[in-house]
Amino acid sequence: MKKPHQNPPTPPAWADRLLGALCPPYLLEELLGDLHEQFADQAAEFGTAKARRLYGLEVIKFCRPYFLKRQAASLTQSATRKPVYPANDYSQPFFLHPDMLRNYFKIAFRSLWKSRGYAAINVVGLSVAFCICVFLFLTAYLQLTYDSFHQDGDRIFQTYFFSNDPEKAVRSGGMPLPFTPALKADYPEVEAAARILTGRKSLVEVNGKYFDKLVVHTDPDFLTIFSFPLLKGSRELALRNLSSIVISENMARTVFGSTDVVGKAVRVGSGSDRKQYVVTGILSDAPNNSSIQYDALIRIENTPNYQSDKDNWSAGSHPVFIKLSPRVDQATLESRLKPFAQKYFPGTLAELKKKGAQPDPAGDLFAVRLQKLSNVHFDREIDGGKGTPIAIVYILLGIGLFILLIACINFINLSIARSFTRAREVGVRKSLGALKNQLFVQIWGESTVICLIGFGAGVLLAYLLLPQFNATFDARLKLSSMLQPGFIGLIVGVFVLVTLIAGGYPAWQMAKFNTVEVLKGKLSLKRPGVLRNSLIVTQFSMACLLACCTIIAAQQVDFLRSRPLGFDKEQVISIPVGNQVDGRQVLGRLRSQLATDPSVVAVTGTSVNIGRGQDRVSSRSVLGFTYKGKNIATDWLLVDYDYLKTLGMNVVAGRDFDRAYSMDSVNRVIVTESMAKMLGETNPVGQLLGDDTDSSGTKSQIIGVVPDFYLYSLADKSRPITMHISHSEPIHYIFVRVAPQTLAGSMEKLKAVWQQIAPQSEFIASFLDENVDAWYQNEERMAQICSLASGIAVLLSCLGLFAVALMMIKQRTKEIGIRKVMGASIGNIILVLSRDFVKLVVLALLIALPIAWFLMNTWLDNYLQRIEISLWVFLGVGLAAILIALATVSIHTIKAALVNPVTSLRSE
């Protein structure tokens, strides 16, 4: 009877794995062969179990340090007892030896020069990515380093009010004038405190010359809290006197022509507010990344109306910064400030209780809280809408990393696609004794060279395009910021990461090629695996995400611009008066000059510009008082006659200001409908406005009600508006409404008239609709950046898909030939080759679209007036992504489908 077939005995697998891990690759094949032959003989002589034990012991004997360094193998006896002679004694140099590295780079340059097209594609992709990253990282770096240069910055805070209103919790950084003295008196742990009142630029006169400079009203503690370098003078004495002024280095050079100006006189202000000061210090210019900007500092007691408001706890007009003692932290002081709020703001607490407000989780209805100095720039609510949301900074960093990652993915895909043409080269090198680590370093060296060239080209491109970037996005970037240690560390880290990811993976894959298979021409990578598919999905996910964000951001900007503002912004010219002339006198002269001009519909004046004009000044005056037990806060707007006519607004109750009524310029006001609602009056006309405690008879009477209109951006908090006329308060802006048919030449005509009536003041007029558009400059800037980034991301993604398609079709050349021989049409072949890519793009859309919806919904929640995200945005982006992918792949698929099948199958 025939014995059943038995499997031959095998040595223990753990021993083979151990030997493979410890033994040099060039010894492994020969050593395993001899050991396996010896195992077979021992199994026949002693049995399988004993042979396996002897095999394991034999492997362990070779695991000695000297064995790992041997360059040739020798066994004392083979299975046949024949001696095995050692190989040659040639010792290969260490793969990181300087001579080897020099050789690697020499070969790398030769290889890249041979494949110039491949190298050019990679260099262009990386240089564009690096250039964009430099811009975005510099922008983010500038924002993230705001106010970081102050010593003891961790002890500096801005105070703000927290009010847990039933409708919405509100935070406000505007403090009343008596707040700071009371805080310092009640809390000794407050080491220093300074009020900072910044308005429009002031008129400065020196030796008969006039300048517009930003003069900040503050307290002496300003120089103690903040560490702006004081070039001349004493921090303790510079602002000791009310007649002292500290000026910036730039102002000293501009006004005096020198910085040696301590003791010299300066006149600041105009009209009755004009006063002479003595220079007591020179302060270094505030850097770009400072929340506080200045040309000069004077005492806050010099502010007009200071004496009348110094005990008024209802009017919040300025931010306050404090510096805590080292032994006190933020939480401790905030808890101790609760009695302070109850002591000085009982009316506010009572009003909140009337509304039914409930304490927040910290137990506060109304409280004084602290914001870290490092966070002030990013808190738009307490900063009055001037800062930059931290989300924008993270978006910029994310976009930069997205583009860089897409470029890395392209690098990987192109390198793998190129590996087919270099397979025989790798096989020959391995057959001649090259080790894996040597091949890895050599191929990685080529990638490093490409990255270096791409990085250098990217930095050069950034240098050339920086002026255009700054002009387009109103940025203040400097390439010198790249020399900061933190930024250098970031750039070096990004560069190393790119070379590791983009160069290391393809080098590792090529170094693993099987020598025998390569030389036989049988090298074939499997169909796209998890990693390659993931790279394609990641690319298109990021590209689609950026495209969705771009479209939605652009829609929100268009929505804000098209929203009714409550007035007619068309055909209105806004003229900043400046500080060189008296605005009220210029308004009178302009009215006289234009009175008989049929192209001029109306002329008026105001204290607040609408939108962001050429002078880039935005001011706000908020009046707070108690009306019949209610806390009222309203925008207090100075206007002149014909204001409503100039802006095309109608009165819904009462009347407009009229020159026939002399009292209209003394104590008469016009309010908006929301103001009337806040007062709780069904018929507000005739009611007297003023604080309940005011018994002086100076209350203002309401003579008219107008519909609500937006005096400030829709992104900012809107308040009811109260308009008044005053002959004593200055006019800062003049509005002129012109007839539509004369709009083209109206600006030049006004300029000529202005040069006659105010030759000493620069004519920097602009159209009101342009000013309003400038409100949304930040949103438009974000949309532009996202648009630029998404366009680059799509192009780089298509480049990567192009490389993958080339690689795939090369692998399937014979398959295509067989399909054509079997009768497949060109259309069928294109469908077969393209559907795998379409599946990946669809998967990318399924990932990107929900993320885009979530992110943009979160961003839109910051706006009181916002759009609803449309489903058509996602459908449009999805369809466009699929069509772009098909167009990219079709370049190769159509070409492959048209090839003669005889050519495809010739090697068979």
From TrEMBL:
Residues 399-514, 788-896 form the ABC3 transporter permease C-terminal domain. It is a multi-pass membrane protein. The chain crosses the membrane at residues 119-142, 391-414, 439-466, 486-508, 529-554, 788-809, 840-860, 872-894. The keyword Membrane applies. GO terms for molecular function: transmembrane transporter activity. InterPro entries: ABC3_permease_C, MacB_PCD, Macrolide_Exporter_MacB, Permease_put_prefix. Keywords: Cell membrane, Membrane, Transmembrane, Transmembrane helix. Its main location: membrane. It comes from the Bacteria. Residues 124-338 form the MacB-like periplasmic core domain. It is found in: Cell membrane. One of its GO terms (cellular component) is plasma membrane. This is FtsX-like permease family protein. It comes from Larkinella arboricola.
